[in-house]
Amino acid sequence: MTAVLVVTQGPLAGQRLELEGELVIGREGAAVTIDDSELSRRHAAVRPVDGGIEIEDLGSLNGTYVNGRRIDAPTRLAGGDSIKLGQSVLELEAASAPATVMSAAPTPPAAAPAASGVPSEPFGTYAAPEGMGRRRGIASRQLLPMLASWAAVAGTAVALAIYFADHPR
Question: Higher pLDDT residue, 72 or 97?
């Protein structure tokens, strides 16, 4: 069976990855390197197995999703299955998928929005709604504490300058 992973979203969008053997995907030190802070160094492995293709999460923090469901064990893939790793989405394109291969993770029904304003998705999967602009990361949430720290440093420097100006040696 000839299989190709097509990157449909993310930093490598538009690329096609032929699956001839095991393919490790990650942020660094992997066969396929994707510049994405949401990926682990060695995030997931996709490999041909007898009669099909399987994907395995390699203990990543943010998880690997097949058709919207987080996987925790090696999972069989079928042509057309969607794989989400960090900000990237890949789709398995198989030339001839056997009729016996079934997707281990069926597509879940659309979730209703949470009434409390807290996303109902698992940790690490929430993204801003379309049209909201760029997704804000952790650095933007740390701006205020950083500014407060610098204000404290500047205030201390001014106080020391005033003290030593009034108390010459």
Answer: 72
